[in-house]
Fold:
Amino acid sequence: MANSDTLEREQGRAFLPKFDANGLLTAVACHADSREVLMLAFMDDEALTRTRETGLAHFHSRSRGKLWCKGETSGHFLRVEDILVDCDQDALVLMVRPEGPACHTGAPSCFYRRLEGDVLVTVKD
Structure:
């Protein structure tokens, strides 16, 4: 039987993000029109707050250990139109309008390769 916290998180109306032991939750950025998966990153409380305040996707850089706004150096911002929350509130889908490529490699999406056997093959547009 679910306790009241679980019930509220899974069936209630309150936004109660469930951060992991490192203070992070998973965020998947998808194109608002095509619904194509553009990138996956992590958000801490600060990144989530800044995203909601500014409408620009902010994430927590695990490698640098700090907040970053997607596009702050490249100019390829992700403008957030909608935030979808999963059932137990430990993952988000950001519906975004990209202002340029989403991937740091210059690809429109970070998911530009497919696994075929043991080989990565570039996905054709």
